[in-house]
Amino acid sequence: MLAEDVYAALTRKDWQKVIDLRNQHPEGPFLKLSHSRDSVLQKALYAGDVELVLALLDDAKKRFSSVREEFEDRLTHDVNIINNTILHVAATQDSCLEAAIKIYEFSGHLLFAQNNRREFPIFSATRYGQFNMFKFLNQKIMEVVPDEECRLQLFYKVSKEHETYTILHVAIYNEHFELALHIARTIPDLIGEEDHNGMTGLHMLAMNSSAFEIRHGKWLKFLLPCPFRHLSDEILGDDATGHKVDDGAVGSCCVMKFPYWNKIRKEHRRYQAARKLGSILVKKDTKWIDKLEPPAVAVAAVAVADSDAYTEDDNSALLASVENLKVADKESAKADADFADEGTASVNGENRKRTDRKSVKPPTPLILATKYGCLGIALEMIKEHPQTVEQVDREYGSILHLAIKYRRIEIFNEVEKMKMQMRKLVRLLDKDRNSILHMVALNTTKVKAKNGSDNTSSSTPKDKPLHPWDTEELISDSRSPAFVLQDDLLLFERVEDILKTHYHKVPNKDYETADQLFAAKKELLRDDAQEWIKRTAENCSLVAVLIATVAFAAAYTVPGGSNPDGSPVLLNQAFFVVFTVTDVLSLHPR
């Protein structure tokens, strides 16, 4: 019952009651209060009351200091159900920095305590984006462990049997971009470190399109630039969590304290930090550029598409290319068998082919940025490393395939300017031997149909993705189906103009040309567009009838009335003449 009373007092924030009750139990502040085995001290840290935590620490030191090292042992073994120590808990809040300093003074070895996830307290600070706490813990680690390589492998990185990641991965994954920017600047060796999926921080950032979006106050940045003048240089006076940090000073002009204004400032600060982080990662993470080599399937497909033997009038060459595709199918199947995991796993009586995670390399950051719509970082990669646009991914094909499929027109425009690279890219095919003209029909645009269903041009995989980059993001389009279809037709014509004529009829793996595939995939969209145009025309006709009715009534009604002789009263007024002319024009058939 005593534990329940202490828990209730903590919930009511009755700190005096907590202090009185903890003296009634021999465990004192180390009394466990819940099934998660959080102690009174840990719950006080969760509550964020530093004074209560300091009082509990001082009381515990007095109570257990009679036996040598007993107090330190108590602090060491005060862990919850996942083996988080009190320093792990304190690291989740910058407001508990003073308490963390006190804990470190009492028991410094807690800095190197690991929980069940084999994470040190610095990982807790990183996961919750606590900038001040991270700086304090990192400073202490650097003081105790001066060897940089040792710090990197032991304290900044978690390596388990099936999972590997660093504090930079954690910061980017949890979207603490200001903290991630600080980590990239102070610990640059982490930039090239890979996780268990073979992904660096640049890969993860390239998959997060929301990091490069500003949802609120876009126009406010240009109208009132003063509050944002520090955003592009250094981290501002407080991080995205709202806690004060000492990197840089907020200008005196930032005096607005309205909640919405603060929300705008935080969003712009987060956006600027993500851009700066992306710039650093693009320049320093270059290992992926040297690793990639064209897969055998892509090379075989290019050979088919690159055949200059085919012309528009040469049907025999087209039939020959189809036969070549059939031969290539067998070679592709063999290559896929070799590429996949040799073993198969049986789950619920079903045999499923499993791909060994460690043997599968992730797509390049440029491919991921194009797929997930991180336009800023993709364009910067193209500018910084222009040779990367020629790299071909086994699964997705070239960057042009993805730019067209996911409608990344900005990236498509940028690559189109690179004449030398375009001569090669337009001839490449993906794993299904689709040309870039085929990809116009395979876009992932989702349009709302009349019956409430979704018309999606490409199918969504039902199986759970095996890797993070296997997920498909559908692009919602709230426009009418007619406008969507119009844009698709214009893009199809644009890509047709870029391609040579004899590439237009190259079939894909299902022996469909780009025209045939476009007609098949856009059939539902075309029906919806026709229905929308029909409904719109009916509505417009109704409005036209109403306007005509009013116009005829106005034509036979003289404004201002008439004189006894029948002449209009306002005959000599200029506005009467204007009204008469416009009224006659409205009745004129067009």
What is the fold's blueprint, element by element?
Layout: H1 2-12, H2 15-22, H3 40-47, H4 50-63, H5 70-77, H6 86-90, H7 97-106, H8 121-127, H9 131-144, H10 148-154, E1 157-159, E2 164-166, H11 167-173, H12 177-186, H13 201-206, H14 218-223, H15 259-284, H16 287-291, H17 296-305, H18 315-339, E3 344-347, E4 350-353, H19 365-372, H20 375-384, H21 399-405, H22 409-416, H23 419-425, E5 445-448, E6 454-456, E7 475-477, H24 481-498, H25 514-521, H26 523-555, H27 574-587
Parallel strand pairs: 5-7
Antiparallel strand pairs: 1-2, 3-4, 5-6
Helix pairs in contact: 1-2, 4-7, 8-9, 8-11, 11-12, 12-15, 15-20, 17-18, 19-20, 20-22, 21-22, 24-26, 26-27
- Please outline the major beta sheet: 3 strands, mixed
Instruction: Give the oligomeric state of the chains in this entry, treating copies of one chain as homo and distinct chains as hetero.
Output: single chain
User: Looking across the biggest beta sheet, what order are the strands in?
Assistant: 6-5-7
- What is the global morphology? flat
Gross CATH architecture of the largest domain: Alpha Horseshoe
Helix content: 40-55%
Secondary-structure class: mainly alpha
Question: What's the CATH topology label of the largest domain?
Answer: Serine Threonine Protein Phosphatase 5, Tetratricopeptide repeat
CATH class of the largest domain: Mainly Alpha
Q: If you compute it from the alpha carbons, what radius of gyration comes out, rounded to the nearest whole angstrom?
A: 33 Å
Give the rounded overall mean pLDDT: 76
CATH fourth-tier homologous superfamily of the largest domain: Ankyrin repeat-containing domain
Distance between the termini: 89 Å
The number of distinct β-strands equals 7
